[in-house]
TrEMBL record:
It comes from the Bacteria. It catalyses: isopentenyl diphosphate + dimethylallyl diphosphate = (2E)-geranyl diphosphate + diphosphate. Keywords: Isoprene biosynthesis, Magnesium, Metal-binding, Transferase. Belongs to the FPP/GGPP synthase family. NCBIfam families: FPPsyn (NF045485), GGPPSynCrtE (NF045685). PROSITE patterns: POLYPRENYL_SYNTHASE_1, POLYPRENYL_SYNTHASE_2. This is dimethylallyltranstransferase. InterPro entries: GGPPSyn_CRT-like, Isoprenoid_synthase_dom_sf, Polyprenyl_synt, Polyprenyl_synt_CS, Prenyl_diphosphate_synthase. It holds the Pfam family polyprenyl_synt. One of its GO terms (biological process) is terpenoid biosynthetic process. Its cofactor is Mg(2+). It comes from Adonisia turfae CCMR0081.
């Protein structure tokens, strides 16, 4: 079990604010508006719309955990947010989840139209890989290539896209099994969180045992994150979440609360977070951000 005092002197809010501001500044500098302006404006509209910046912060935290620096990981951290934003833009489209609000503002296609939104997502995905290759410094080329490979795997048919396909196929099927639901979210949600955690460690030169331990940590927090998302979709308001709520119920999608109920879903999320924290036991004080982020996932209200 984790010692209960591991984060006594650690202020997660301050850590998230500081790292988030660093990521925000780097993202702002990464995307200039040039001709044809509309595509860059659309990309910036969604990338700069705020959010928790959890994926890039996880990347920075694990890089520092293993002995690297924020500077080594920042290009990849920005790329992860670009890829995550792409997935949100496309997920919100009428052909997918047909959502009107994201991060407290109108979704990209509601402002720029479906055509531009699709292309903005495409452009962000392509630019993310270019950005890692072009901007990463003081890291061996083999490590950069490994990060690019891992990110491609996490986003494609073996990861995010595969999860989304099964998610779409499960609409209107409230009797979807827990195995199918887990497949959806291990691929659609946890895969990108996992590569966020692992990529920071790879950039810092982590050994295979460390990478595998951090992978298990990330898989656990990723699934817990989705369970909490499903719970919040039932218990929160649109103002609290900054996005449309109740969409899963309307689409007759299976969710963790629909299978387990709210109380059991919360318990399962807590168990996953505990398992995630246990993977961090061998690390020293630098593990505190990762421990605190794990706890934050089940405590969050939006």
């Amino acid at each position: 079990m984790m010692p209960t005092d591991v984060n006594v002197d650690f202020d997660l809010n301050s850590y998230l604010a500081t790292k988030g501001a660093d990521v925000e500044a780097a993202l702002d500098q990464s995307l200039a508006v040039v001709y044809p302006e509309v595509i860059y404006e659309s990309m910036r509209y969604s990338v700069m719309a705020g959010g928790k910046r959890l994926r890039p912060i996880l990347c920075l935290a694990t890089c520092e955990l293993v002995g690297g620096t924020s500077a080594q990981a920042m290009p990849t951290a920005c790329a992860l947010e670009m890829v995550h934003t792409m997935s949100l833009i496309h997920d919100d489209l009428p052909a997918m989840d047909n959502d009107d609000y994201r991060r407290g503002q109108l979704t990209n296609h509601k402002v720029y139209g479906d055509d531009v939104a699709i292309l903005a997502g495409d452009a962000l995905l392509a630019y993310a890989f270019e950005f890692i290759a072009d901007r990463t410094e003081d890291v061996p080329a083999t490590a950069v290539l490994d990060v690019i490979r891992r990110l491609g795997h996490a986003v494609g048919a073996a990861g995010l896209v595969g999860g989304q396909i099964v998610d779409l196929a499960s609409e209107g099927k409230p009797d979807t099994s827990i195995e199918t639901l887990n497949f959806i979210h291990i691929h659609k949600t946890a895969a990108l969180l996992e590569v966020s955690v692992v990529s920071g460690a790879v950039l810092a030169g982590a050994d295979n045992d460390t990478i595998e331990r951090l992978s298990r940590y990330a898989q656990n927090i990723g699934l817990a994150f989705q369970i909490v998302d499903d719970v919040l979709d039932v218990t929160s308001t649109q103002e609290e979440l900054g996005k449309s709520i109740g969409k899963d119920i309307q689409a007759q999608k299976a969710t963790y609360p629909s299978i387990w109920g709210l109380d059991e879903s919360r318990k399962k999320a807590d168990d996953l977070i505990q398992a995630a924290k246990e993977e961090l036991e061998p690390f020293g004080p630098l593990k505190r951000p990762l421990v605190a982020i794990a706890d934050f996932i089940t405590a969050r209200t939006h």
